[in-house]
Specification:
The complex is a heterodimer. Helix content of chain A is 0%, strand content 50%. Chain A has no helices and 11 strands. Chain B has no helices and 11 strands. In chain B, the strands form 2 sheets. In chain B, strands 2, 4, 5, 6, 9, 10 and 11 form a 7-stranded mixed β-sheet that branches. A 4-stranded antiparallel β-sheet of chain B has the order 1-3-8-7, with no helix packed on it. Classes of the chains: A mainly beta, B mainly beta. The interface between A and B is medium-sized, with 27 and 22 residues.
C-alpha cells in the first residue's frame, strides 16, 4: 500500500494568515493526489483534485501543488469557516489511501 | 444534483454481518462514468477506503478487508450495498458511501460526492 504522511498533524493560525499543509507519498504517485476538507460532524468534501485543480464551487483561496511524492495544500487567507480537518488521498493505485489528517484551528 | 444517502442498522452484534445501503438520487448508478464506493472512519480517526463497485459488476476491495467485504449494486432501485461479515469492535465507525469520478478527463479519480455518513456500532 502507498503510505500518505501529512504534516503538521495540527495547525493553529489567525484569520488572514497564509497556511500550508504538506503531504508526502511513500512512492511516486505522479499527480494522482486529492485534498479533502472535513468540517466537524460532516462528510469530507473534495477541494483539490489531480494535485492542483480546484473543484467546482471551492473558494479560490485554496490551491494545491506538487507531483511525484511531495504535495502541498495552501490557504492564501485563512477564514473562520476553514476550521476543519484536511486530508490528502492518493488515487495512483489501489487500495486508495488517505493521509492521517491535519487539524486546522483558528486562533 | 446527485445525492447519496446511507441507510442500515446502527448496531450490529459481534460476529454478525454489517449491511448498509446507499441510495442514489439525481443520477443513475448505471452511468458508466463512475465508481460507487464505501469509505469508513472510526471515531476520531482517519479515513479508510473499503472498496468500489462499477456497473459492469467489477469490484475492487481493500486487501485489509477483502475476505469479509462484498459490494454490489441494484440498478432497479438505483442503489448499491455493502456487506461486511464477521464484524468486531474494530469495525465500529462512521460509514460513508461516495462517488468516485474522473473529473475533467484528468485521468485522476476523486471522491467528488459523499453521503452524510451513518454510524455503525459493533456491540453485544
Amino acid at each position: 500500500d502507498i503510505q500518505m504522511t501529512q504534516s503538521p498533524s495540527s495547525l493553529s493560525a489567525s484569520v488572514g494568515d497564509r497556511v500550508t499543509i504538506t503531504c508526502r507519498a511513500s512512492q511516486t504517485i505522479r499527480s494522482y493526489l486529492n485534498w479533502y476538507q472535513q468540517k466537524p460532524g460532516k462528510a469530507p468534501q473534495l477541494l483539490i483534485y489531480a494535485a492542483s485543480s480546484l473543484q467546482s464551487g471551492v473558494p479560490s483561496r485554496f490551491s494545491g501543488s506538487g507531483s511525484g511524492t511531495d504535495f502541498t495544500l495552501t490557504i492564501s487567507s485563512l477564514q473562520p469557516e476553514d476550521l476543519a480537518i484536511y486530508y490528502c488521498q492518493q488515487s495512483y493505485s489501489t487500495p486508495w489511501t488517505f493521509g492521517q489528517g491535519t487539524k486546522m484551528e483558528i486562533k | 444534483q446527485v445525492q447519496l444517502q446511507e441507510s442500515g442498522p446502527g448496531l450490529v452484534e459481534p460476529s454478525q454481518t454489517l449491511s448498509l445501503t446507499c441510495i442514489v438520487s439525481g443520477g443513475s448508478i448505471s452511468s458508466g462514468s463512475y465508481y460507487w464506493t464505501w469509505i469508513r472512519q472510526p471515531a476520531g480517526k482517519g479515513l479508510e477506503w473499503i472498496g468500489r463497485f462499477y456497473i459492469s459488476g467489477t469490484t475492487n476491495y481493500n486487501p485489509s478487508l477483502k475476505s469479509r467485504v462484498t459490494i454490489s449494486g441494484d440498478t432497479s432501485k438505483n442503489q448499491f450495498s455493502l456487506k461486511l461479515s464477521s464484524v468486531t469492535a474494530a469495525d465500529t465507525a462512521v460509514y460513508y458511501c461516495a462517488r468516485m469520478n474522473s473529473i475533467g478527463n484528468s485521468g485522476n479519480d476523486a471522491f467528488d460526492i459523499w453521503g452524510q455518513g451513518t454510524m455503525v456500532t459493533v456491540s453485544a
